[in-house]
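Proteins fold. Shown next:

***
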Amino acid sequence: MRKNFLRTSVLIFTVIIVWLLTFMVVNADRFDENILDTQTTNQMMSIQNELDIVSDPEHQNSLQAKLNTLQYQADIQATGQKMAPEKPADICASMPKSTFVEEVRPTGILPGAPGPFSSQVLKVENQWQDQLNGYWMHLYAGVSGLDSNQGGVILWIEDVESGGFFSDPEPEGALTILSVHGTRLELLTSEGTTRYFDILAQQFIPDLKSEVNVVELPASYVFDPCGQDR
């Protein structure tokens, strides 16, 4: 009768412990670093309960050896949990700070240089470049490689499918950039006639006072998930 009572008590105790461990696993957001693996704990409890009941020395030794092995594994696991680095509350906290420094580019009117196009499209006399509205813009002035009388410009906006070749509406040979007036350029033909080009409107204009609509471009902002630009 006493043995049956002890077995029943042990069984009830085991069920309660297993239920508590299961509840913790399901509901806890984080394990405490000292809590052992649930499966290993259950195995150790089961072996300990059996060890308390059996009387055969050989069987006891076998159970004790298993229990010692599981305890060793549990100790190793607990040590590993203590040594593990804590996760930062902010996932970006461990990200290295950006050390990128943008290359310093010259701006304004520059000597002629080959552009990202064929010389048959345009033979470059000189060029202009600057950053407007978040975009690097380049304008090459010169003459068509197929018609020495047809002056024109090529507008290239980095990372945008916009711009292109714009012919001088009254061709008088090659165009050369003379000066910059905000977002408008003053150019000169081979015969000495002045031309004006509006960069944002992407067109030739009669004079600097002309009002024209600008060509809309997409926003140039690049999303940074770790907010290194904030």
Remarks:
- The two ends are 74 Å apart (CA to CA).
- The CA atoms of residues 88 and 159 lie 36 Å apart.
- The longest strand covers residues 123-132.
